[in-house]
Amino acid sequence: MNYFLNLPINSINDEIKQLNKNLNTMIAAENPILYAAAEQLFSAGGKRIRPTIIFLISKFINSNNQISTEQKRLAEITEIIHTASLVHDDIIDDCDKRRGITTVHNMFNTKVAVLAGDFLFAQSSWYLANLNNLNVVKTISKIITDFAEGEVQQGIKLFDSEISVAEYIEKSFYKTASLMACSCKATIMLNNNNNNIQNDFYLYGKHLGLAFQIIDDILDVKGTLYDLGKSPGSDLKNGNLTAPLILALNQEPDIKKMIDREFQLKPDTNETIKKIKNTNAIQKAQDLAEEHIQLAIHIVKKKYPEKQKKNLLLIAYYVLSRIN
Fold this sequence. Notes:
Elements: H1 13-26, H2 32-43, H3 49-61, H4 69-93, E1 97-98, E2 101-102, H5 104-107, H6 110-129, H7 134-156, H8 165-189, H9 198-222, H10 225-228, H11 234-237, H12 243-248, H13 254-260, H14 268-277, H15 281-303, H16 306-321
Antiparallel strand pairs: 1-2
Helix pairs in contact: 1-4, 2-6, 3-4, 3-8, 3-16, 4-6, 4-7, 4-8, 6-7, 7-8, 8-9, 9-15, 15-16
Protein backbone atom coordinates (compact mmCIF):
# COMPACT_ATOMS: atom_id res chain seq x y z
CA MET A 1 0.00 0.00 0.00
CA ASN A 2 1.25 3.49 -0.80
CA TYR A 3 0.74 5.85 2.11
CA PHE A 4 2.65 8.75 0.57
CA LEU A 5 0.81 11.80 -0.57
CA ASN A 6 -0.28 11.34 -4.15
CA LEU A 7 -0.67 14.84 -5.54
CA PRO A 8 0.15 16.33 -8.94
CA ILE A 9 2.68 18.71 -7.38
CA ASN A 10 5.95 17.99 -9.15
CA SER A 11 7.63 21.15 -7.92
CA ILE A 12 8.49 19.64 -4.52
CA ASN A 13 9.24 16.01 -5.42
CA ASP A 14 12.97 16.47 -4.90
CA GLU A 15 12.44 18.13 -1.52
CA ILE A 16 10.20 15.29 -0.32
CA LYS A 17 12.77 12.68 -1.40
CA GLN A 18 15.55 14.56 0.39
CA LEU A 19 13.38 14.93 3.49
CA ASN A 20 12.87 11.16 3.64
CA LYS A 21 16.64 10.64 3.47
CA ASN A 22 17.36 13.30 6.08
CA LEU A 23 14.87 11.94 8.61
CA ASN A 24 16.87 8.74 9.04
CA THR A 25 20.04 10.75 9.63
CA MET A 26 18.34 13.06 12.10
CA ILE A 27 17.04 10.24 14.32
CA ALA A 28 20.43 8.54 14.68
CA ALA A 29 21.01 7.21 18.20
CA GLU A 30 23.96 5.42 19.78
CA ASN A 31 21.71 2.86 21.44
CA PRO A 32 20.78 0.28 18.74
CA ILE A 33 17.40 -0.56 20.31
CA LEU A 34 16.41 3.10 20.50
CA TYR A 35 17.55 3.69 16.92
CA ALA A 36 15.70 0.59 15.68
CA ALA A 37 12.52 1.74 17.43
CA ALA A 38 12.76 5.23 15.96
CA GLU A 39 13.59 3.87 12.51
CA GLN A 40 10.54 1.58 12.70
CA LEU A 41 8.33 4.66 12.86
CA PHE A 42 9.73 6.18 9.68
CA SER A 43 9.93 2.89 7.78
CA ALA A 44 6.13 2.82 7.89
CA GLY A 45 6.11 5.85 5.61
CA GLY A 46 3.34 8.41 5.88
CA LYS A 47 1.53 10.97 3.79
CA ARG A 48 4.12 13.67 4.54
CA ILE A 49 1.29 16.17 4.28
CA ARG A 50 2.78 18.49 6.90
CA PRO A 51 6.15 18.89 5.15
CA THR A 52 4.30 19.20 1.84
CA ILE A 53 2.30 22.15 3.18
CA ILE A 54 5.47 23.79 4.55
CA PHE A 55 7.26 23.39 1.22
CA LEU A 56 4.33 24.80 -0.75
CA ILE A 57 3.97 27.81 1.56
CA SER A 58 7.74 28.41 1.39
CA LYS A 59 7.68 28.51 -2.41
CA PHE A 60 4.57 30.69 -2.27
CA ILE A 61 6.12 33.40 -0.07
CA ASN A 62 9.71 33.39 -1.35
CA SER A 63 10.17 35.79 -4.25
CA ASN A 64 12.58 33.42 -6.01
CA ASN A 65 10.19 30.45 -5.63
CA GLN A 66 12.81 28.64 -3.56
CA ILE A 67 12.67 26.87 -0.20
CA SER A 68 15.26 28.07 2.29
CA THR A 69 17.52 25.70 4.24
CA GLU A 70 15.75 26.74 7.45
CA GLN A 71 12.30 26.03 5.98
CA LYS A 72 13.45 22.59 4.83
CA ARG A 73 14.73 21.88 8.34
CA LEU A 74 11.42 23.09 9.80
CA ALA A 75 9.59 20.57 7.59
CA GLU A 76 11.82 17.79 8.94
CA ILE A 77 11.31 18.93 12.55
CA THR A 78 7.56 19.01 12.04
CA GLU A 79 7.54 15.45 10.72
CA ILE A 80 9.64 14.22 13.66
CA ILE A 81 7.26 15.88 16.14
CA HIS A 82 4.26 14.36 14.35
CA THR A 83 5.87 10.91 14.40
CA ALA A 84 6.75 11.20 18.09
CA SER A 85 3.11 12.00 18.84
CA LEU A 86 2.00 8.90 16.92
CA VAL A 87 4.10 6.50 18.99
CA HIS A 88 2.63 7.93 22.20
CA ASP A 89 -0.87 7.78 20.69
CA ASP A 90 -0.35 4.11 19.78
CA ILE A 91 0.71 3.30 23.35
CA ILE A 92 -2.27 5.10 24.90
CA ASP A 93 -4.71 3.52 22.41
CA ASP A 94 -2.90 0.14 22.43
CA CYS A 95 -2.91 -0.01 18.62
CA ASP A 96 -1.48 -3.15 17.01
CA LYS A 97 -0.81 -1.59 13.60
CA ARG A 98 0.18 1.81 12.25
CA ARG A 99 0.10 2.23 8.44
CA GLY A 100 -0.04 -1.55 8.12
CA ILE A 101 3.14 -2.10 10.16
CA THR A 102 3.43 -3.42 13.72
CA THR A 103 3.53 -0.54 16.21
CA VAL A 104 6.70 0.14 18.20
CA HIS A 105 5.31 -0.95 21.57
CA ASN A 106 4.21 -4.25 20.04
CA MET A 107 7.49 -4.83 18.22
CA PHE A 108 9.60 -3.99 21.28
CA ASN A 109 7.76 -3.14 24.50
CA THR A 110 5.94 -0.18 26.04
CA LYS A 111 8.98 1.16 27.89
CA VAL A 112 11.09 1.24 24.71
CA ALA A 113 8.22 2.84 22.80
CA VAL A 114 7.78 5.60 25.41
CA LEU A 115 11.53 6.28 25.31
CA ALA A 116 11.51 6.28 21.50
CA GLY A 117 8.74 8.89 21.46
CA ASP A 118 10.57 10.97 24.07
CA PHE A 119 13.80 10.64 22.09
CA LEU A 120 12.11 11.95 18.95
CA PHE A 121 10.63 14.92 20.83
CA ALA A 122 14.10 15.64 22.24
CA GLN A 123 15.74 15.40 18.81
CA SER A 124 13.16 17.73 17.30
CA SER A 125 13.79 20.22 20.11
CA TRP A 126 17.54 20.14 19.51
CA TYR A 127 17.15 20.79 15.77
CA LEU A 128 14.54 23.44 16.52
CA ALA A 129 16.94 25.29 18.84
CA ASN A 130 19.57 25.21 16.10
CA LEU A 131 17.34 27.26 13.82
CA ASN A 132 18.40 30.18 16.06
CA ASN A 133 15.00 31.85 15.80
CA LEU A 134 13.42 32.43 19.20
CA ASN A 135 9.96 33.20 17.83
CA VAL A 136 9.93 29.97 15.84
CA VAL A 137 11.11 28.03 18.91
CA LYS A 138 8.24 29.51 20.97
CA THR A 139 5.68 28.77 18.24
CA ILE A 140 6.71 25.17 17.61
CA SER A 141 7.27 24.38 21.30
CA LYS A 142 3.60 25.20 21.95
CA ILE A 143 2.65 22.23 19.74
CA ILE A 144 4.11 19.75 22.23
CA THR A 145 2.16 21.38 25.06
CA ASP A 146 -0.98 21.20 22.94
CA PHE A 147 -0.43 17.48 22.28
CA ALA A 148 -0.43 16.83 26.02
CA GLU A 149 -3.54 19.00 26.51
CA GLY A 150 -5.32 17.10 23.74
CA GLU A 151 -4.44 13.71 25.22
CA VAL A 152 -5.71 14.79 28.64
CA GLN A 153 -8.96 16.12 27.16
CA GLN A 154 -9.41 12.90 25.21
CA GLY A 155 -8.62 10.80 28.27
CA ILE A 156 -11.23 12.41 30.51
CA LYS A 157 -13.90 12.10 27.81
CA LEU A 158 -13.40 8.40 26.99
CA PHE A 159 -16.73 6.60 26.60
CA ASP A 160 -18.53 9.84 27.52
CA SER A 161 -21.71 9.89 25.47
CA GLU A 162 -22.37 13.48 26.61
CA ILE A 163 -19.37 14.86 24.68
CA SER A 164 -20.33 17.76 22.41
CA VAL A 165 -19.14 18.56 18.90
CA ALA A 166 -17.50 21.71 20.31
CA GLU A 167 -15.49 19.64 22.80
CA TYR A 168 -14.51 17.25 20.01
CA ILE A 169 -13.32 20.15 17.84
CA GLU A 170 -11.30 21.63 20.70
CA LYS A 171 -9.58 18.29 21.35
CA SER A 172 -8.95 17.88 17.62
CA PHE A 173 -7.28 21.29 17.53
CA TYR A 174 -4.85 20.34 20.28
CA LYS A 175 -4.09 16.88 18.87
CA THR A 176 -3.91 17.65 15.15
CA ALA A 177 -4.63 21.19 13.99
CA SER A 178 -2.16 22.94 16.31
CA LEU A 179 0.76 21.25 14.55
CA MET A 180 -0.44 22.36 11.11
CA ALA A 181 -1.34 25.87 12.28
CA CYS A 182 1.90 26.54 14.15
CA SER A 183 4.15 25.02 11.48
CA CYS A 184 2.46 27.16 8.80
CA LYS A 185 2.99 30.26 10.95
CA ALA A 186 6.62 29.32 11.65
CA THR A 187 7.25 28.91 7.91
CA ILE A 188 6.27 32.56 7.48
CA MET A 189 8.40 33.57 10.47
CA LEU A 190 11.46 32.14 8.75
CA ASN A 191 10.86 34.61 5.92
CA ASN A 192 11.55 37.96 7.57
CA ASN A 193 9.72 40.00 4.95
CA ASN A 194 6.32 38.45 5.57
CA ASN A 195 5.51 39.08 9.24
CA ASN A 196 2.17 40.64 8.32
CA ILE A 197 0.71 37.39 6.94
CA GLN A 198 1.59 35.06 9.83
CA ASN A 199 -1.97 34.96 11.17
CA ASP A 200 -3.43 34.19 7.72
CA PHE A 201 -1.34 31.07 7.42
CA TYR A 202 -1.86 30.08 11.04
CA LEU A 203 -5.61 30.02 10.32
CA TYR A 204 -5.06 28.27 6.98
CA GLY A 205 -3.17 25.50 8.78
CA LYS A 206 -5.67 25.35 11.63
CA HIS A 207 -8.65 24.78 9.35
CA LEU A 208 -6.76 22.26 7.20
CA GLY A 209 -5.79 20.40 10.37
CA LEU A 210 -9.33 20.28 11.73
CA ALA A 211 -10.69 19.07 8.39
CA PHE A 212 -7.91 16.46 8.18
CA GLN A 213 -8.81 15.08 11.62
CA ILE A 214 -12.54 14.97 10.89
CA ILE A 215 -11.87 13.07 7.65
CA ASP A 216 -9.59 10.66 9.52
CA ASP A 217 -12.40 10.02 11.98
CA ILE A 218 -14.89 9.42 9.17
CA LEU A 219 -12.47 6.94 7.62
CA ASP A 220 -12.20 5.10 10.96
CA VAL A 221 -15.91 4.34 10.56
CA LYS A 222 -16.15 4.12 6.78
CA GLY A 223 -12.75 2.74 5.78
CA THR A 224 -11.31 -0.76 5.48
CA LEU A 225 -8.21 -2.42 6.89
CA TYR A 226 -6.54 -1.91 3.49
CA ASP A 227 -7.42 1.79 3.43
CA LEU A 228 -6.43 2.51 7.02
CA GLY A 229 -3.49 0.21 7.69
CA LYS A 230 -5.29 -0.71 10.94
CA SER A 231 -8.64 -2.19 11.91
CA PRO A 232 -11.69 0.06 11.35
CA GLY A 233 -13.46 1.21 14.50
CA SER A 234 -10.22 1.51 16.49
CA ASP A 235 -11.31 4.86 17.95
CA LEU A 236 -14.63 3.42 19.08
CA LYS A 237 -13.02 0.44 20.81
CA ASN A 238 -10.73 2.81 22.70
CA GLY A 239 -13.59 5.05 23.78
CA ASN A 240 -12.50 7.96 21.61
CA LEU A 241 -15.85 9.32 20.47
CA THR A 242 -15.51 11.19 17.18
CA ALA A 243 -17.70 13.35 14.95
CA PRO A 244 -19.61 10.58 13.11
CA LEU A 245 -20.58 8.89 16.36
CA ILE A 246 -21.42 12.12 18.21
CA LEU A 247 -23.63 13.22 15.32
CA ALA A 248 -25.35 9.82 15.16
CA LEU A 249 -26.25 9.62 18.86
CA ASN A 250 -29.54 11.53 18.63
CA GLN A 251 -30.73 9.40 15.72
CA GLU A 252 -29.65 6.02 17.12
CA PRO A 253 -30.19 5.94 20.92
CA ASP A 254 -29.00 2.31 21.11
CA ILE A 255 -25.47 3.53 20.42
CA LYS A 256 -25.44 5.10 23.91
CA LYS A 257 -26.03 1.67 25.48
CA MET A 258 -22.99 0.27 23.70
CA ILE A 259 -20.89 3.27 24.75
CA ASP A 260 -22.01 2.88 28.36
CA ARG A 261 -20.84 -0.73 28.39
CA GLU A 262 -17.61 0.42 26.66
CA PHE A 263 -18.14 -1.84 23.62
CA GLN A 264 -17.40 -4.88 25.79
CA LEU A 265 -19.61 -7.26 23.83
CA LYS A 266 -17.93 -8.66 20.72
CA PRO A 267 -20.52 -7.37 18.17
CA ASP A 268 -20.71 -3.88 19.71
CA THR A 269 -18.12 -2.13 17.55
CA ASN A 270 -19.44 -3.45 14.23
CA GLU A 271 -23.01 -2.86 15.33
CA THR A 272 -22.20 0.75 16.23
CA ILE A 273 -20.54 1.32 12.85
CA LYS A 274 -23.61 -0.14 11.13
CA LYS A 275 -25.92 2.16 13.09
CA ILE A 276 -23.78 5.22 12.31
CA LYS A 277 -23.98 4.33 8.61
CA ASN A 278 -27.79 4.09 8.88
CA THR A 279 -27.92 7.78 9.82
CA ASN A 280 -26.80 10.91 8.00
CA ALA A 281 -23.99 11.40 10.55
CA ILE A 282 -21.17 10.61 8.12
CA GLN A 283 -22.52 13.18 5.66
CA LYS A 284 -22.91 15.74 8.45
CA ALA A 285 -19.34 15.10 9.60
CA GLN A 286 -18.17 15.48 6.01
CA ASP A 287 -20.09 18.78 5.79
CA LEU A 288 -18.27 19.92 8.93
CA ALA A 289 -14.91 19.05 7.37
CA GLU A 290 -15.90 20.90 4.21
CA GLU A 291 -16.74 24.01 6.24
CA HIS A 292 -13.19 24.08 7.55
CA ILE A 293 -11.75 23.48 4.08
CA GLN A 294 -13.80 26.36 2.73
CA LEU A 295 -12.51 28.62 5.52
CA ALA A 296 -8.93 27.69 4.60
CA ILE A 297 -9.62 28.28 0.90
CA HIS A 298 -11.30 31.62 1.62
CA ILE A 299 -8.18 32.90 3.39
CA VAL A 300 -6.04 32.14 0.35
CA LYS A 301 -8.53 33.16 -2.33
CA LYS A 302 -9.40 36.46 -0.70
CA LYS A 303 -5.91 37.91 -0.41
CA TYR A 304 -3.46 36.29 -2.79
CA PRO A 305 -2.87 36.32 -6.58
CA GLU A 306 -4.41 33.55 -8.69
CA LYS A 307 -1.19 32.15 -10.17
CA GLN A 308 0.54 31.84 -6.82
CA LYS A 309 -2.19 30.10 -4.85
CA LYS A 310 -2.97 27.09 -7.05
CA ASN A 311 -1.02 24.52 -5.00
CA LEU A 312 -2.29 25.86 -1.67
CA LEU A 313 -5.84 25.35 -2.92
CA LEU A 314 -4.94 21.95 -4.34
CA ILE A 315 -3.69 20.65 -0.98
CA ALA A 316 -6.92 21.85 0.65
CA TYR A 317 -9.03 19.98 -1.89
CA TYR A 318 -6.84 16.90 -1.41
CA VAL A 319 -7.62 16.82 2.33
CA LEU A 320 -11.33 16.69 1.54
CA SER A 321 -10.97 14.22 -1.33
CA ARG A 322 -9.51 11.52 0.96
CA ILE A 323 -13.07 10.56 1.87
CA ASN A 324 -14.00 9.62 -1.70
